[in-house]
Amino acid sequence: MTELHAPISLALVNDYPVVTQGIARMLENVDRLKVVERASGENPSHVVDLVLYDAFAARGRGEHDVVRLLEDERNRKLVVYTWHVSEAQVQQALDLGIDGYLSKELGARELADALIRIHEGERVVEPKPVPENIEIADWPGRGAGLSPREAEVVALITQGATNDEIARTCYLSINSVKSYIRSAYRKMGVERRSQAVLWGVQNGMQPKATTTECTP
Question: Of 12, 108, 135, 171, which has the highest C-beta tally within 10 A?
Fold first, then answer.
């Protein structure tokens, strides 16, 4: 195999294993990309060509996590993967020095193509508007019928975030946050925040710090 077409090593980073597992499944049939590690709450332990940082429920840690990953010399290039695509947030991430900013609206083929282009030296930004009925790889709470946005709101509630903090983290209005909370509570069968926190802990909404090496 020539160097030009050598596999591109990829590490997936997010605090929720179900999220990184879902992305790995999306990319498993892409010959050029090889997922070598799924890291939850930690820097990848390998030298990798690309790190794909999924910002699901990152809360206030998001910028800190990006800076930490950028400072690790083992991570040759860093890409942020999110459905929060406001102009201000995109520019903030770019100013930190990331190599790509990708919307979760991208399908598996588009995501893989963008990652390959980033590896080859292009700074790719594809912040397309993200629809409410987005279908991404996976997320905690999906089995209970929570949408991706509802799930992120519940995950942040489980972490102790206030409605104002959720609004800032997710770039939503406070009324939108309250609407997502009401609809999520109906699906979860809870009425109070304390019940939602307990439900979240019992249903995988608590971040986990683990690192998984992927088999060749």
Answer: 12
Quote the CA–CA distance of 187 and 151 in Å, as a whole number.
11
**Strand order through the sheet with 211-213:** 124-126, 100-103, 78-82, 50-54, 8-13, 33-39, 211-213
3-state helix/strand/coil string of the chain: CCHHHCCEEEEEECCCHHHHHHHHHHHCCCCCEEEEEEECCCCCCCCECEEEEECCCCCCHHHHHHHHHHHCCCECCEEEEECCCCHHHHHHHHHHCCCEEEECCCCHHHHHHHHHHHHCCCCEEECCCCCCCCCCCCCCCHHHCCCHHHHHHHHHHHCCCCHHHHHHHHCCCHHHHHHHHHHHHHHHCCCCHHHHHHHHHHCCCCCCCCEEECCC
* Residue 6, token pair as written in the block: 């050598």
CA separation for the pair 153, 54 (Å, rounded): 15
Residue with tokens 């249903």: 203
Strands 33-39 and 8-13: parallel
148 within 8 A of 139, measured Cβ to Cβ = yes
What fold does the segment set 3-131+207-213 form as a domain? Rossmann fold (3.40.50)
| Domain ranges (residues) in the chain | 3-131+207-213, 142-202
